[in-house]
Amino acid sequence: MEDIYVKESPTTPEVRFKASTGDFEIKGVSIPEDTEEFYKPITDWLEEYIRTQTPDHIVMAFKLIYVNTSTSAVLGKIIKLLEPPAGKQLDIKIQWYYEEEDEDMRDLGEDFNSFTKLKFELVACDEIS
Q1: Per-residue pLDDT tens for 94-124?
Q2: Pairing mode, strands 23-30 and 14-18
Protein backbone atom coordinates (compact mmCIF):
# COMPACT_ATOMS: atom_id res chain seq x y z
CA MET A 1 0.00 0.00 0.00
CA GLU A 2 1.31 3.46 -0.92
CA ASP A 3 2.11 6.08 1.71
CA ILE A 4 0.14 9.31 1.87
CA TYR A 5 1.85 12.68 1.89
CA VAL A 6 -0.04 15.97 1.69
CA LYS A 7 1.97 19.18 1.82
CA GLU A 8 0.91 21.77 4.39
CA SER A 9 -0.81 24.94 3.18
CA PRO A 10 -1.95 28.03 5.09
CA THR A 11 -5.34 26.36 5.70
CA THR A 12 -4.56 22.63 5.63
CA PRO A 13 -2.21 20.45 7.66
CA GLU A 14 0.71 18.34 6.54
CA VAL A 15 -0.35 14.69 6.42
CA ARG A 16 2.18 11.84 6.50
CA PHE A 17 0.87 8.29 6.72
CA LYS A 18 3.62 5.67 6.30
CA ALA A 19 1.99 2.35 5.48
CA SER A 20 5.13 0.26 5.99
CA THR A 21 5.80 1.50 9.54
CA GLY A 22 2.31 2.35 10.81
CA ASP A 23 3.46 5.87 11.70
CA PHE A 24 0.81 8.47 10.91
CA GLU A 25 0.96 12.22 11.50
CA ILE A 26 -1.32 15.19 10.91
CA LYS A 27 0.43 18.47 11.70
CA GLY A 28 -0.31 22.18 11.43
CA VAL A 29 -3.45 24.23 10.98
CA SER A 30 -6.68 22.66 9.75
CA ILE A 31 -9.25 25.14 8.54
CA PRO A 32 -9.92 23.93 4.98
CA GLU A 33 -12.69 25.51 2.94
CA ASP A 34 -14.19 22.08 2.31
CA THR A 35 -13.19 19.81 5.17
CA GLU A 36 -14.90 16.71 3.79
CA GLU A 37 -13.20 17.11 0.41
CA PHE A 38 -9.77 17.57 2.00
CA TYR A 39 -10.02 14.64 4.42
CA LYS A 40 -11.95 12.14 2.25
CA PRO A 41 -8.86 10.64 0.53
CA ILE A 42 -7.21 10.38 3.96
CA THR A 43 -10.14 8.64 5.66
CA ASP A 44 -10.65 6.38 2.62
CA TRP A 45 -6.97 5.37 2.76
CA LEU A 46 -7.20 4.73 6.49
CA GLU A 47 -10.31 2.54 6.11
CA GLU A 48 -8.51 0.50 3.45
CA TYR A 49 -5.36 0.26 5.56
CA ILE A 50 -7.19 -1.02 8.65
CA ARG A 51 -9.18 -3.49 6.55
CA THR A 52 -6.31 -4.93 4.49
CA GLN A 53 -3.05 -4.49 6.41
CA THR A 54 -1.71 -6.27 9.48
CA PRO A 55 0.71 -3.79 11.06
CA ASP A 56 2.62 -4.56 14.24
CA HIS A 57 1.54 -1.21 15.57
CA ILE A 58 0.02 2.12 14.60
CA VAL A 59 1.01 5.45 16.11
CA MET A 60 -1.32 8.29 15.12
CA ALA A 61 0.23 11.65 16.05
CA PHE A 62 -1.93 14.75 15.96
CA LYS A 63 0.25 17.87 16.10
CA LEU A 64 -2.31 20.55 15.46
CA ILE A 65 -2.04 24.25 16.18
CA TYR A 66 -5.63 25.16 15.35
CA VAL A 67 -8.68 23.35 13.97
CA ASN A 68 -12.16 24.45 13.01
CA THR A 69 -15.34 22.69 14.11
CA SER A 70 -15.70 20.63 10.94
CA THR A 71 -12.12 19.40 11.30
CA SER A 72 -12.86 18.33 14.88
CA ALA A 73 -15.65 16.12 13.58
CA VAL A 74 -13.32 14.49 11.03
CA LEU A 75 -10.61 13.95 13.65
CA GLY A 76 -13.17 12.12 15.75
CA LYS A 77 -13.99 9.97 12.74
CA ILE A 78 -10.29 9.20 12.22
CA ILE A 79 -9.92 8.11 15.85
CA LYS A 80 -13.00 5.88 15.52
CA LEU A 81 -11.61 4.37 12.29
CA LEU A 82 -8.46 3.39 14.18
CA GLU A 83 -10.42 1.29 16.65
CA PRO A 84 -9.80 -2.27 15.43
CA PRO A 85 -12.70 -4.39 14.24
CA ALA A 86 -14.00 -7.03 16.63
CA GLY A 87 -11.58 -9.92 16.91
CA LYS A 88 -8.64 -8.03 15.38
CA GLN A 89 -5.86 -7.24 17.86
CA LEU A 90 -3.79 -4.19 16.95
CA ASP A 91 -1.37 -2.11 19.01
CA ILE A 92 -2.72 1.38 18.34
CA LYS A 93 -1.66 4.53 20.13
CA ILE A 94 -2.92 8.09 19.72
CA GLN A 95 -0.53 10.93 20.53
CA TRP A 96 -2.19 14.33 20.90
CA TYR A 97 0.41 17.12 20.93
CA TYR A 98 -0.55 20.57 22.12
CA GLU A 99 1.34 23.71 23.02
CA GLU A 100 1.55 24.07 26.82
CA GLU A 101 -0.27 27.41 26.81
CA ASP A 102 -3.06 26.23 24.49
CA GLU A 103 -5.86 25.10 26.78
CA ASP A 104 -8.35 24.76 23.91
CA MET A 105 -6.24 22.18 22.09
CA ARG A 106 -5.50 20.34 25.34
CA ASP A 107 -9.24 20.25 26.11
CA LEU A 108 -10.00 18.96 22.61
CA GLY A 109 -7.48 16.15 23.11
CA GLU A 110 -9.06 15.31 26.46
CA ASP A 111 -12.50 15.19 24.80
CA PHE A 112 -11.24 12.75 22.16
CA ASN A 113 -9.55 10.66 24.84
CA SER A 114 -12.84 10.37 26.73
CA PHE A 115 -14.67 8.60 23.88
CA THR A 116 -12.06 6.05 22.81
CA LYS A 117 -10.59 2.96 24.38
CA LEU A 118 -7.37 3.32 22.39
CA LYS A 119 -4.14 4.15 24.21
CA PHE A 120 -4.16 7.95 24.27
CA GLU A 121 -1.25 10.16 25.25
CA LEU A 122 -1.55 13.91 25.75
CA VAL A 123 1.84 15.50 25.03
CA ALA A 124 2.53 19.10 26.12
CA CYS A 125 5.27 20.84 24.17
CA ASP A 126 6.72 24.33 23.91
CA GLU A 127 5.86 24.66 20.24
CA ILE A 128 4.37 22.43 17.57
CA SER A 129 7.08 21.93 14.97
Answers
A1: 999 999 999 999 999 999 999 999 999 999 9
A2: antiparallel
Residue 54 has what pLDDT?
78
Q: Are 111 and 96 in contact (CB under 8 A)?
A: no
Q: What is the 3-state secondary structure (H, E, C) of 11-67?
A: CCCEEEEECCCCEEEEEEEECCCCHHHHHHHHHHHHHHHHHHCCCCEEEEEEEEEEE
Nearest to 22 by CA among 81, 88, 90: 90
pTM, full prediction: 0.94
Helices (H) and strands (E) in the chain, counts: 3, 6
What is the C-alpha to C-alpha distance for residues 73 and 47, in angstroms, rounded to an integer? 16
- For residue 29, give every residue at least 6 positions away whose Cβ sits within 8 Å of its Cβ, in sequence order, or none: 8, 10, 11, 12, 13, 64, 65, 66, 67
Q: Residue range 56-65: average pLDDT?
A: 95
CA distance 116 to 94: 10
Q: What domains can be seen in the chain, in order of their start residue?
A: 4-125 (3.30.750)
- Asked if 1 contacts 52 with a C-beta cutoff of 8 angstroms, the reply is yes
